[in-house]
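S1.2 Input.
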Amino acid sequence: MIVAFSVTPLGVGEDVGEYVADAVRVVRESGLPNRTDAMFTSVEGEWDEVMDVVRRAVAAVEARAPRVSLVLKADIRPGVEDGLTSKVETVERHLAQPGG
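S1.3 Output.
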């Protein structure tokens, strides 16, 4: 499964980068395949391990912020591994074709 999620601290002002970094640090230290972009962090693994990472990432932000917003999207597809890479490679392969 792949989960894309965003944790946003509320009530701490506009500069939230250090809070978001706390959440991303939890994901990276988990050892699960992951990617972070400007809007979301994606993490791949089994249901229980991925949801545990999300829970701990939220807790890391919650420890320093009075309120936390969580947006989460999940791709639950048993038997698929390395989806973080293979999905992007498929799109890139189509874009590389003439007219792509």
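S1.4 Remarks. The first helix runs from residue 17 to 29.
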